[in-house]
Amino acid sequence: MTKPMTNTERPRSSLATAGYPAQRVSLVDLLDRVLAGGVVVTGEITLSIADVDLVVVSLRALLTSVSALTDPAVGREGPEREWPERE
Amino acid sequence: MSEDTGVWAYAITEDEHLSGPEGEPVELSWLTGVGEAKVRTTAAGGLTVLVSDVSLAEYGEAALRANLEDLDWLDEVAREHHYVIDAAARLFPLLPVRLATVYSGDAAVCAALTANGAQLRGALRRVGGRVEWGVKAYAAPEGEPAREATAQEGTAREAGAPVSAPSPDEGEPNTSGGAGLAYLRRRRQQLTAAREGKAAAVSGARAVHAELAAKAGDTRLHPPQSGQLSRVRLPMLLNAAYLLDAAGSVTFTAAVAGQATAHPELRIELTGPWPPYSFVGPDDDEADDEH
Known about the structure:
The complex is a heterodimer. By secondary structure, chain A is mainly α. Chain A has a domain at 44-70. Chain A has helices at residues 27-34, 49-70, and strands at residues 15-18, 46-47. The longest helix of chain A has 22 residues, at 49-70. Chain A is extended and about 50 Å long. The N and C termini of chain A lie far apart (34 Å). The model of chain A is unreliable at 1-22 and 65-87 (pLDDT under 50). Chain B has two domains: 5-128, no CATH class; 132-148 and 184-288. In chain B, 43% of the residues lie in helices and 21% in strands. Chain B contains ten helices and nine strands. Chain B has helices spanning 56-59, 61-67, 71-89, 106-115, 117-127, 145-158, 178-215, 227-230, 249-262, 284-288, and strands spanning 5-14, 40-44, 47-55, 95-96, 102-103, 130-139, 218-221, 236-245, 266-274. The longest helix of chain B has 38 residues, at 178-215. Chain B starts with a strand and ends with a helix. The relative contact order of chain B is 0.14.
């Protein structure tokens, strides 16, 4: 992923609040939700849903692996959804 | 529906929510979605879907495969999709539909609604009208409290200044080894402090999540974000979503602010309120949370 992002929002204080009323949300927060969240309602003639899922999976894998490579930080050892629920 | 047009879905609600108190229909004609297409509705079995017509040349199967890998295209389409969901969620309870769900036509939408009606109604009861808050926690950067003490101590010692509270192994007089050994000792202490700082941040993030989860109706954990996308270079330790009643938002955001104050070893960011994107998933997600 070498293309520079247009998103330039950065945290400015220990608690940065994005919200009421809608301020421009950061792309990365939006992608967490629209690519992985949202209901998937399949039907026999839904176009391409399986293929799109595959693309989304590969995209997410790419985005996540960039982070993992540049920052082998704490809490990354397990499957992504298992941390930090397990004590 | 012509052969080169598909139907893009944004959100699902129950028919009854689309009527005002006097039975007048909720006005949606001002809404535009992907490709600036007008949003309209299609309904079956008591459920209504907000949709718009899209060109399959840009949003069809093959085109989506290519376009979704183009971050500029994805950025624009994700925002257009979100705009419709966010605007509608302020008007009535709904379920957000995942990005890039395209049907061959209204008949296909209705068939999908009918086939999944019970599940969709169940999800609407769980999350409809509620909001999602995002909380991200990073290990505080060098120079902020956890690490600052170490750096200053090292500098002070190098300059020969007195150290007020020496730790046991560092406080011994430097009787042998000279500058090289002193450097190694200092370096080792820095590494230890960094490791301890990181461990403190990790346990801090767990504590924050536990505190906030206790105040939320439900929680979901997202994977840590790519630093390249977020432009934040700090290690991300928590990327969580919390489901709240609209009325609970004020208390919850105050609790987040309290956690930010209580945990100087972390940098905490709050986003939202979002439509409940992260909570519409199948029930097997719930097994991953809290249990």
